[in-house]
Amino acid sequence: MTVPHGWDRTDIHSYASERRRDAGFTKEGPTLLTGVGMRHLRGARLGPVVGYATVGLSNPAALPMDPSGDDVEPGVHDGALDPVGADVVDGDDPATRPRHGTVNIIVGTTRSLTAAARANLLTVIAEAKAATVLSAIGVPGTTSDAVIVATDPAGESTPFTGSSTTVGAAARACVRDAIWASFQSRYADESPPDSVETAEHGVTTRRRAEVFLP
């Protein structure tokens, strides 16, 4: 669902419930929020899979492969989102969580997926999303991307959803094509940011983790 410009609610569960009731839904369910208008929602279907996506890229999240390089400045670690280009320390705080662009994805299948297959399908979807957005603007996603996976309990039991399986391959294609179509709709009349530095908001992960031999 689209949230209005300037939206600042932090009671997200209550807000989502209100919006669902206003829309006539009588049951609770997973909810994705975005600043992107639903006129830019696009769907794609292939075989036993259907996917939907909305694409907003005002808050790209860059992941440089050489964060110690000369072209990357040290991050700012103040526990919140600093202006463009800062690193994030506590992205779990609802008061500081960004609510700008977002690539939201819903993928459903007519197959009955095991718990492991559902979890694995999330990774397949995230990989396809990252590849598509990376192709579009050079970063793998935004600071607030989200995915919902839906399965049909009455469908054919399916334990595997990797990229070479029927469900996994179809999901990859649906995610790629739905994201690309939504991207083209959303940015038909304006240019998307081509880096964190040219975006309204965004983060670059500059910190390095400790690498060790287990």
Order of helices and strands: HEEEEEHEEHE
Say how many strands there are.
Answer: 8
In percent, how helical is the residue content? Answer: 25-40%
Spatial order of strands in the largest sheet:
1-2-4-6
Total number of helical segments? 3
Entry summary:
The chain is of the alpha/beta class. Helices cover 26% and strands 16% of the residues.
What would the keywords be for this entry?
globular, 26% helix, 214 residues, 4-stranded mixed sheet, alpha/beta, 8 strands, two-stranded parallel sheet
Write the layout of secondary structure elements.
Layout: H1 12-22, E1 42-46, E2 49-56, E3 61-62, E4 102-109, E5 112-113, H2 115-137, E6 146-151, E7 157-158, H3 166-186, E8 203-204
What does this structure look like?
Mean pLDDT is 86; it is low at 69-86, 88-92 and 94-99. The chain has a 4-stranded mixed sheet with strand order 1-2-4-6. It has helices spanning 12-22, 115-137, 166-186, and strands spanning 42-46, 49-56, 61-62, 102-109, 112-113, 146-151, 157-158, 203-204. Helices cover 26% and strands 16% of the residues. It has one domain (33-204). Helix 2 runs parallel beside helix 3 (166-186). It is α/β, with parallel strands linked by helices and 214 residues long. The termini are far apart. A hairpin with a 2-residue loop joins strand 1 and strand 2. It contains 3 helices and 8 strands.
